[in-house]
Amino acid sequence: MTVTRELLAYYEQDREHDRLREGRGRLEFWRTQDVLRRILPPAPARVLDVGGGTGVHAEWLSADGYEVELLDPIPSHVERAAELAGVTARLGDARELPVPDGSADAVLLLGPLYHLAERADRVRALAEARRAVRPGGLVDAATISRYSAIHDGIYQGFYLQDGFRAAAHAAAADGVMLSPRSGFTAYLHDPDEVLDEFTDAGLPEVERYGLEGAFWLYGDVNDWLDDSERRTLILDAQRAVESVPSLLGVSGHMLTAARRDHPGSP
């Protein structure tokens, strides 16, 4: 992806690292962890964490025994991730991965598709992930819901602002969100369009997982996440409905996973 001044300025503030470790962002983090721990091949498999940022997921993957290589286009992210135990980090673009064919057991794209506004670039990134993973290996990508800006805008009060409201409704119509807050363009997916992008990248058989469900919009969600017993209940509740098609678009984020076919597979 093209690293614009606006994108660089946003991520240099280290917001993403803290967002997933604090407040209701923890629901996305723990649910991502929950899904990946169920679908990844067993450690010590080799995981390529594309667009992995400062290593918020690479850190626990390494602790779980995985061999993790992180690629990210933001220099400060790479520097910070490289300090994590067991993690190799270097600069890289999701659309042109600097790795050999079939060299990973799993490829994660837990951020790149947000920043590729052109469909051709998103399909190219998914196709690169397919190339980089071994036959039978896992490709897993995160997307932001087409409707999340409207939902989050109401929750946080941004919807009262004319500029944000217009941007959120534009994103709900065509997926492209020029955020008045961050200053950079993001792409928001309809849950069903992800299927076509995976198919065009050579990954036709997918599973979809809504991460937060409706729970990220509950006013007392932080109270649930702060309490270990209630946190277990809310994670179990979302796991029970994570793949219900009619609920996927309510989640702020969705994971889509597919396995690369073995040669000669029908």
Automatic annotation (TrEMBL):
UniProt GO MF annotations: methyltransferase activity
UniProt record, GO biological process: methylation
Keyword list, A-Z: Methyltransferase, Transferase, Ubiquinone
Positions of the Methyltransferase domain: 47-137
Tagged with keyword Oxidoreductase: no
InterPro entries for the chain: Methyltransf_25 (IPR041698), SAM-dependent_MTases_sf (IPR029063)
Name the record gives this protein: Ubiquinone/menaquinone biosynthesis C-methylase UbiE
Organism: Streptosporangium subroseum
